[in-house]
Amino acid sequence: MEAYELVNYDMTLLQAIILGIIQGLTEFLPVSSSGHLALGQYGFNIGNDMLFTLVVHIGTLVPVVVVFWKDVWALIRKPFQKMTYLLVVASLPIAVTGLLLRNVVGEAFGSLPALAAGFVVTGTILLISDRIKKTKKNTEDITYFDALCIGAAQAVAIFPGISRSGSTITAALARGINRADAAKFVFLMSIPAILGALLVETIGLVRDYDVVMADINFANLAAGLFAAMVSGYAAVKFMMAAIKKAKLRYFAFYVLILAIAIGVYLLAF
Questions:
Q1: What does each C-alpha distance from 169 to 71, 177, 192, 198, 261 come to in angstroms?
Q2: pLDDT, tens digit, 9 for 90 and up, residues 255-269
């Protein structure tokens, strides 16, 4: 199956709002934001707008900072502490993977079969997560090896269709971290991950400045930003409750059905 091609045309305001909502919700819900954005772009038959992607990523960063502002402020006030080092260690695998497999991942984003496979992986991971019971470690008990294992799970999620939050939460639970502290650590991990994505997109934006900045639609950017912030906040709060109650299997059923739907589409067309 060849990679699908996207045709570039001006994004409408409604499409900007929808894509912003998709980014905000799926960045934190365990269903893969990259996979859903790829499906959204495919459905709207539009290309990748780097500036818009940059803006909605900023929108998803805001809710995490707002919800966990006490923890973020503690890190800012005292940057040289164990939690900072844990977050650095957890961020190393995705940084290395992103540099080494950038081209491979880029090709995967254009492949519907790869996307379906990623959703199957996510569904399997989520079904496993709800069956993990022995989780007693708190934040103070997290080791650097724990952080590295969780970071490795995040690195796997660089591929479209594989949920970052789903894989990292499952890894944290597998390392024995209690559900509340696992959720907090995973969401704090998302801050350097999103900042890293912003850096990559900013570099691409600067490189293709003339093309990207040729026709800016500020209304679309503002709508996408606001939609991503609001939906992202709702998703973070919802996920904190869902993780504590071990109800991620419902998301597993959703992504598995989505994978089947993609498979049926590929067979039909």
A1: 18, 9, 16, 23, 26
A2: 999 999 999 999 987
